[in-house]
Amino acid sequence: MQYKTILTYLPDKKTADRLLNAAMSVARENDAHLVGLHVIPRVPVMYSVAAAEIPQAIVQQQEELLQAEANELREHFEETCRKGGVKAEWRCNRIEHADMASEISSQALCADLIVTAQNEEGVIGLVDDLPSRIVTEAGRPVLIIPRTGNYPQIGKNVVIAWNGSKEATRASLDALPFLKSADGVKVLAIDPKCREGYNNIALGGEMALCLARHDVKTETAVTASGPISVGDAILNRLADEHYDLLVMGCYGHSRLRETLFGGVTRDLLEHMTAPVLMSH
Q1: What is the per-residue pLDDT across 33-86, written as a single tens digit (0 to 9) for each?
Q2: Where do the H-state alpha helices sit in the chain?
Q3: Which CATH number fits domain 157-279: 3.40.50.620, 3.30.70.920, 3.30.559.10, 3.40.190.10?
Q4: How far apart are CA 238 and CA 259, in angstroms?
Q5: Span(s) in the chain for CATH 3.40.50.620
Q6: What's the predicted TM-score (pTM) here?
């Protein structure tokens, strides 16, 4: 199994190099076709009495500026992929009716893997849900790249955040192209909920056996989060054991439902220190 079609969402020039380094590395590893997607937003207009007084020339000027930025990003993408020896395709869409997450998810429905960026620090509002919304709406595995650092190689030392759920199972199997070429993979169960007839699944043993049948070098570990949150316990492991990829399920379609799951997804998306592969 390999990722043969990889789509990376490139919002701007600022994040392009970081995302392209990661996406091109995965594309070369899998001999994949890389799609670069940029989405041009609607020019924001305040719906008030004053909105009617905004000259069309100003709106047109803003649209031309956005198009110029998209053209520059396309040139950078195509040149970078050409120099990197990666098969590439550029897509640029304008939002007409859908919002940003829905548009990206629709474009990525036939991709084997989506690569996107962690939100910039301090981003608020609907945009700050973009990575998790892409995971839940596209139904494809999503590789999220942290806002800081450079990641030219991903997936040699991997940890799976395991809790015995269908989301964690989906993420583990969606990550197989990474796991099969990894030097080591740890299935980490934190605060496992054991019960009769379910212990080996809860503790990660059954998933480790499943992955071993795919020739994945796998080990298991069990730990308690103790006085800190599960999210913080995972982040501590990432730092202490120098993992370069975290694999985990993404939970919930809403803030309310995510709160019921302890907010682990939200915590990790806000404070991630290594690339994270998520599935829903």
Answers
A1: 999 999 998 876 555 545 555 677 887 888 889 999 999 999 999 999 999 999
A2: 13-30, 56-84, 100-107, 130-138, 166-174, 176-180, 199-202, 205-212, 230-241, 255-260, 264-271
A3: 3.40.50.620
A4: 23
A5: 5-145, 157-279
A6: 0.91
